[in-house]
Amino acid sequence: MTAPDPAALRAAAQVPADAPLPLVLHGQPVLHTPAAEVTAFDAALAALVEEMFTTMYAAPGVGLAAPQVGVGLRVFVYDVGRGRRGHVVNPVLERVPGELQTDLEGCLSAPGLEYDTPRALHARVTGVDVTGAPVVVEGEGLLARCLQHEVDHLDGMLYLDRLGGRTRKQAAKDVRAADWHGDAHRVLTRADVLEQEARRAAGDDDPDDDEL
Questions:
Q1: What is the pTM of this model?
Q2: Catalytic residue among 51, 105, 150, 211, which?
């Protein structure tokens, strides 16, 4: 499957040409459908990845999967700080056996909500980059959580789907009460881009405060 023209994504959501890509919100089918493998490694794919970085930073977030901008392709970008930045196309996730971590997790497609979510402490992803060259990303803590969260998106899952018991029931209630519930998109603006660029330049960009 090939990447779409970002201009068409903006036009569909009726956002300005200089705005970041609109963020798809919980409940939209693209977020709950497994994404397709990328088959064309062309300029359109490279442009999509760059647009995804811009949108992720403007949100702000530390990870973003293609379905979150309305594209059903197996691609994600990430930046969890300290130089741990990149993208993976057609990723395959390996949860490294061992210790678990439980921490608050949030999502750009369900903004403002956070819940304790168990994840593997260590994770490894293999895939390729926009040129088709092999890529391996491995880490623990926030990076491992990010890798697992983004691959979940590509498999048609949100972290909310991993919650259980009372937490899952509370999350469903909170989603229904959220001011964005029922909206298809969260629209970002050029001002959001400039604000977050200034924030990063000032060093006021703790990744632990951002959503995935």
A1: 0.94
A2: 150
